[in-house]
Amino acid sequence: MSLINYSSREINCKIVYYGPGLCGKTTNLQHIYSRVPQETRGKMISLATEMDRTLFFDFLPLELGQIRGFRTRFHLYTVPGQVYYNASRKLILKGVDGIVFVADSQIDRFEANVESLMNMHDNLSEHGLGTEKIPLVMQYNKRDLPRVVSVADLEKELNPSQAPFFEAVALRGSGVFDTLKVACKLVLKTLG
Amino acid sequence: MVKGNWALFEEDFWSINQILQTLMRSASSRSVMLIDKTGQLISSIGEPPGFDVTSFSSLAAADFAANAELAKMVGETDFATIVHQGASESLYLSLIANRVILVVLFDKKTSLGLVRLKARRAGDELMVVLNRLFNKLQYRNEEIVTTSLGADFQAEAESEIDSLFQD
Questions:
Q1: Three-state SS string across chain A, please?
Q2: ipTM of predicted complex
Q3: Cross-chain Cβ contact A177/B165 below 8 Å
């Protein structure tokens, strides 16, 4: 949940990258980390297993600088995608201001996307939230791979609420910033 | 502002900082931090820590959240306090008003007993300030944001986002 501190004049917002295992959530954050100016980003924290799979979360703080006298920050988190880490996913959604759902475009991962999306709705509703209250941006990742589901089909099955969507190849950075920008702007809109 | 978000005002911020100052001095601790349960730093008092406080806050909140789930699993409502004791540096974390986490960083110059005692007292005082703040927020949420942020803020923030977030 966003925190506005009128005394120290700071605004902090939390954006969570959600999606099935190996869909590219951490890759999104790594690309952002590698490209934004050094003074804009804080330290990136990854709580991962020895195999580099996210165990609890990745965390990347970004700072816009002073906007109308307010130091404005976005805290980006990823959730662990693997099915059995649901308790962790639920915790990370606590206080979320915006969600980027990263879907894996490969045909073989279609079911995993659907399951993860249902899981996200379940976890949000446990916090008394829903995507009607929390801004959502869809990212269809891995568009460069062979055997991918068409965007029209992904849209039909995964995005009934017609949230903004972007095609991406996170490994090369394509679509990563388009997604982030829209997510940040939508979150700011909810502030005022 | 959407419901569930919260804001901190000048007068409450200073009341909070005063309580944290007193706690730091009376417990002979190195520094004291107040962190929102979702991992955002509210205030930090004392020696400037030699670590990244933003990352620290997110990890402390995650630590607390994970422990709260563990508590539920063993049949407790929550673990109201958590202590991490190191060879030279230790941390005392405690949940206040079910919304914020009070963190005391201390070393061998003091004892866990003293930190715990003083932190409890500070916790009671913080509870009063925070409850007052949350009551105020219930009534003023809409008014606060429309008067303080507004369209100019939005436009300026968007242009900053466009210039900073790109390949």
A1: CCEEECCCCEEEEEEEEECCCCCCHHHHHHHHHHHCCCCCECCCEEEECCCCCEEEEEEEEEEEEEECCEEEEEEEEECCCCHHHHHHHHHHHCCCCEEEEEEECEHHHHHHHHHHHHHHHHHHHHCCCCCCCCCEEEEEECCCCCCECCHHHHHHHHCCCCCCEEECECCCCECHHHHHHHHHHHHHHHHC
A2: 0.86
A3: yes
